[in-house]
Design goal:
By secondary structure, the protein is α/β, with parallel strands linked by helices. It has three domains: about 100 residues, Alpha-helical ferredoxin (Fumarate Reductase Iron-sulfur Protein, Chain B, domain 2), CATH 1.10.1060; about 90 residues, FAD/NAD(P)-binding domain, CATH 3.50.50; about 90 residues, 3-Layer(bba) Sandwich (FAD/NAD(P)-binding domain). About 40% of the residues lie in helices and about 15% in strands. It contains 15 helices and nine strands. It has a four-stranded parallel β-sheet, with helices on both faces. Strand 1, helix 8 and strand 2 form a beta-alpha-beta unit. The protein is globular. The C terminus is likely disordered.
């Protein structure tokens, strides 16, 4: 999408007074504000407005769950197509990167802050601290920055080159980094507290939820988050892969398995497609890649002696909850 075609998307925005899109944004981005300036072709001003609340627009515009947040709150979506907020955010950010637009950063003060973890939270914290003149050092266990953006989201969904461009831009503001530093291994909180005025810990919580079913510990059962983070995938070639869950991680794992040679990939989800938490575009693209779906189904047991030989599935049925019964149960002592 060029800035010319971006004009077509901005024309759909009616600059609502109540700003439901902004309310739906976890960062509280002034969405109607930056789109208004894009309409006027004041692109640098639009970027300034967007940058007041986010430092990762080129990435968030591509991977945020817009359908359940800003774009899903757009009033135009009730009767017409919602404004493509994510696409506009990404396009504006790309234009800013191309033109080397930066946010002014004051000189450092005597204050110093240590940030443990160079993922989205740590990078955002570092960037905003530098904008306020604070000296920042990031301590990262890997030899790269980005965290989940790099090892949690497949390259076919988010370019690693783009992630590096964004992180390099944040480092250019004067943020220092010490790689190979992991809290509890070769780094202690006591050390940091002695040297820095404050410490921000943003190490993430990239652990998969357990299914808590028999056979979960058998060889051949893997956590999706761990597979994506460490890239230590088993040999999928010619095999059938079952993925439990209906979120974006499940979509990423299933599409990765397809690309690594799996004969068949089936996503098992306990509700219907309508209730799936994954973005509709991710579900559509998974289907286009050849991923199959089994809805209204729950894996209740993994079968096998030492390694996976099969699974046991319970078929589900959606029913309407009796709210009066729920309330009566809730008030009982």
């Amino acid at each position: 999408m060029t800035m010319g075609t971006a004009k077509c998307f901005t024309d759909n925005c009616e600059s609502c007074v109540t700003k439901p899109c902004q309310i739906g944004c976890p960062l509280n981005n002034d969405i109607t504000g930056f789109i208004r300036e894009m309409k006027r072709r004041h692109y640098e001003k639009a970027y300034e407005i967007l940058s007041e609340t986010t430092v990762l627009p080129a990435l968030c515009g591509r991977i945020c769950p817009h359908f359940s947040q800003c774009q899903g709150s757009c009033v135009k979506g009730v009767s017409y197509d919602a404004v493509k907020i994510g696409a506009l955010e990404a396009r504006l950010a790309d234009y800013a990167l191309k033109n080397h637009w930066t946010v002014e950063v004051p000189k450092k003060t005597r204050f110093k802050v240590a940030i443990v973890g160079g993922g989205p939270a740590g990078l955002t914290c570092a960037a905003f601290l530098r904008r306020n003149g604070i000296g920042v050092t990031i301590f990262e266990k890997h030899d790269y920055l980005g965290g989940l953006l790099v090892h949690g989201i497949p390259a076919f969904r988010l370019s690693k080159d783009l992630v590096k461009k964004v992180t390099d831009g944040i480092l250019a503001t004067g943020v220092k980094v010490k790689y190979g530093k992991e809290l509890g291994r070769n780094l202690t909180l006591e050390e940091l507290e002695q040297e820095y005025d404050a410490v921000f810990i943003g190490v993430g919580a990239n652990l998969s939820n357990e299914m808590k079913i028999p056979g979960e510990s058998l060889e051949g059962v893997y956590g999706g988050n761990e597979l994506l983070e460490y890239g230590d995938h088993p040999d999928y070639a010619g095999k059938t892969v079952i993925v439990s869950g209906g979120g974006n991680v499940a979509m990423d794992v299933s599409r990765t398995a397809i690309r690594l040679g799996a004969k068949k990939v089936i996503v098992v989800y306990r509700r219907s497609e309508k209730e799936m938490p994954a973005d509709p575009v991710e579900i559509r693209e998974a289907k286009e890649d050849g991923v199959e779906f089994m809805f209204l189904a729950t894996i209740t047991k993994v079968l096998g002696d030492s390694k996976v030989q099969g699974i046991e599935i319970l078929k589900n049925e959606l029913v309407k909850e009796d709210l009066r019964r729920c309330r009566s149960r809730a008030v009982k002592p």
